TrEMBL record:
Pfam families: PDT. This is Prephenate dehydratase domain-containing protein. It comes from Providencia hangzhouensis. InterPro entries: Preph_deHydtase (IPR001086). Gene3D superfamilies: Periplasmic binding protein-like II. SUPFAM superfamilies: Periplasmic binding protein-like II.
Amino acid sequence: MFTIHTLGPKGTNCEKAAHYYLEKNDLDGNVILHETLEIAVEKIKKDNNCILLGCIVYPYLHNIVFQNLTFLKLTDCFVLDTHNMLFASRYTDLNKIKKIGSHPAPKDLFSEVNGLNKPIESLLFNSNSEAALQCANGTVDACITTLKAAKNHNLNILHDFGPVPMGFSIHSKIN
């Protein structure tokens, strides 16, 4: 069976893109989600009939490409709208938000949210879905995340940035 290794946990834009890629290419396969793409690369080394799906704004994607030239090559790219990107919280009152979380890529969206008290402490997480999970668990008060992850964790949507046209890369093993 064909496998796509990509960024998790459930609800990431990479997971959405992986399922899209399978459908678009009429492939029977599964999607395995990893804490980071770097961990996914290590798993691919031990797996056959698989690819890595990355997001072009993933921090250090260039390292994944150039540090693995002996066994991975870029074989495809496509553009797909992300899930709606959101500013979400356990709270509905912006004044209660003291700590925010995000994946490094969309963290600048915080500056687009009006009414946030500044300065505010921020934490970075491995994915948008992880930011939502950590918000639900109380590690942070609010986060930049996806609509899917916010719903999965019963967060309040305070600002909807909408979908973002995003590039996704496919990396195949060199035979």
